[in-house]
User: Fold mannan endo-1,4-beta-mannosidase from Riccia fluitans.
Amino acid sequence: MASISLSSMRFAVIIFILQSFLSVVVRGDIRGGIIRRQGTQFVDSNGNPFVVHGCNFYWLMYQGADQWSRKFVDSVLDDAQNLGLNVGRTWAFSDGGYRALQVSPGKYDETVFKALDYAIIQARKHNMRLVLTLVNNYGDFGGKPQYAEWGRKAGYHIPNDDAFYTHDALKTWYKNHVRKVLTRRNTISGVMYMNDPTVFSWELMNEPRCETDPSGNTMAKWVKEMAAYVKSIDKNHLLTVGVEGFYGPNHGVSKRWAYPFNTDNTGTDYIRLNKIANIDYATVHTYPDLWLPSWKNPAKLTFLRIWVNIHIRDAKKILKMPVLFGEFGKNDRVFDYKPEQRRQFFWTVYDSVFSSVEKGMSGVGSMLWQLFPKGMEDWDDGFAVYASDLSTSEIIDSQTIRLKKMEQAMIKARNATHAQADVIQLWTSNERSRNDR
Assistant:
């Protein structure tokens, strides 16, 4: 083999540097493939880091089911893209009731399913991935209470809504819904959901709780069973439980104080549930305005900062997995609210996430609750964020800019390291060939 020249080595380095810049250019494109977990980080199919900068808009399928209201889907995705958001969270369920996806166990409204198809396609066009949640803990859009009611109507003994976690029929109905959604073939793209890189992850349940078993055993058993079932169908996409981040009764005061009222009866545990096999990343929600209504704003901010950083620390040291702050928001209906309070709230979350990314910790993203387009003011729960509200959108833009710079630096460093390694490998191979002659 002929020896490699110095100019050839320089050419190889140049090629890798160009590839680095090209990868940055296409970073916003969904062509990064299915996102996966690598230790405590998210990476795309090329191994490049992926930091979640996202929002919630749970209503995409609901509004997309009617031609008149479908404009809201397009509008909010336009806003999200303009703000630089890359992941959205929305419901992949609607059980019974008006515009139901699952009208009754196993029976689906194709018009509503096509609305979810449309939402996924539009998200892809706007370079956004979606967290798809598979059922609700609450009665909104059906959820756990609707499954229990279906069970009663079918003649089963359903003593309470938490039978959702234990009754064979209800568990089977949930599994059937999981399979129906994961194996759905999008009527617009022809791609099955389980093969679509637009799907960022599956979420077993929105804010699961089981108050009839405070020990957490019932919830842990259900998560173990359902996580294994999801992965038996789709091994490629990420999976999360969907918990709020409460520490269970078995943890000491040093952790449990962070949620300063009794949550021992929720039957969930941030550590225990996220350590279950097949769970890829942890989630945390945070609502000081709802949890601590009598506290002053400075005290709420102190709580928020500690709450966020405790969960990042434990995700790194104990869970050894990424943690995503899947819901956070500031209520503009609290007494003496001022826009500056929302700015402070957002900066507290964003700074903690940015610092975590910078230090290689486990906190790798956040998703504000919730982004709305103009025209949906009637849906505002006090936490609505509008792109036209400069006091908030400027903060989101700032986080977008610095996260993109961080990602680009990380990608360049990674590619430069690979380029150097490849040059060394080429040189070593050449030396071996020369010695063999």
The chain is about 45% helix and 15% strand. The longest helix spans residues 390-436.
